[in-house]
Here is the input.
Amino acid sequence: MYSIDSRICGNLKRGLSVARRRFRGAGGALRRGGAVTLEMALTLSILFSICYGLIEFGYYFYVKNTMEGAAREGCRAAIVTGATIAAANSAVENQLQVANLVPSGTTASGTGTYTIGNYTVTYTDSTTSTTLNSSTLPTMPIGDTLTTTITATWGTVGAGFRPMALIGSSKTLTTASAMRKEGD
Here is the structure.
């Protein structure tokens, strides 16, 4: 003989067991439907955005630092006694080639303003504000300041590493190095 209380309790127990089975998957783990998938999609999109941003900005600073080193080496090669523009351009080319920013065998072209791959190199006597070339560099007075400037556009030098295009393609990268002309 069943009392009313036992029938109600029995129905509740059966109802709870059905509810438990409905919300638990294999092995008794609680099922949460699409909530986990949605949370993962939102989290991964933010995480990938951060990673791609780090890659792009990391490559930007790598290129900028390499350009600074190349400007310094070009300036160092141009300030010694008997220096030539060809030797200075060669120093810049070597720095850019070692960093894989220009292919091997790339040589400078132009006069006054030289082009090495996608990079523009200018040598200036900062004391007189004149742009130097192969004939004016040897006559530069001892003690004057030689400035080597390298310029590039981010859209051409950073084209392979722009997963999110956070840095505009028209951004101009400019680096310079200045040293005094040495004498005998």
